[in-house]
Amino acid sequence: SGNLLTPSRPGSFAGPIPGVDAAVFNEQGQPVTGEVGELVIRQPYLGMTLGFWKDPARYLETYWSRWPDVWVHGDWALIDADGLWYILGRSDDTIKVAGKRVGPAEVEAAALDGTDVAEAAAVGVPDPLKGQSVVVFAVARPDADPGPIPSAVSRSVERSLGKPFKPAAVHVIPRLPKTRNGKILRRVIRNVFVGDPPGDLSSIDDMASLDAIRELGRPG
To answer: One of 21, 80, 82, 92 is an active-site residue; which one?
Structure first.
């Protein structure tokens, strides 16, 4: 593994470099191939993050709390039948609806497809029947009528991803919370919407961008 001469496919890589004991675990903490799971590291290696500045408890909770002596990287990964590896996005952002997983980027791409949406953020919120349901926050294009956007986004997502991932709600807001580097703060959006503590806001570009989400509150 990790050999640059090994044949690969688009989006794949040959595996971890020598000395890194990486694996893909299922929800039971067992190594798997041929299915999506958590990317983990089973032995320490040079270059591994040793901690968070002045916050050791958060470091342990983030990386070491799920399985004993196993580092959980926070990404979905897949090892195929030929031993090729794929990184499939952040596991802490992934939305799981009735046992089916979808990445927020997939929902957001569908929300923009053929609609008057300039940008969107998709999050998973608790659902008593399905575990989670999809909620989309959309920013309308300049001069667009925001009225038809929720129904247009719902149709587009359902058409692209299937009925299970049709949004439970689509909210049009003035702007999305982002970092100063332009990264959408999905976890902050979700937490503010459902009434949980927002988490670290030190990198947010505009605190006022949370106001509209806070006013919407959790859907009843």
So the answer is: 92
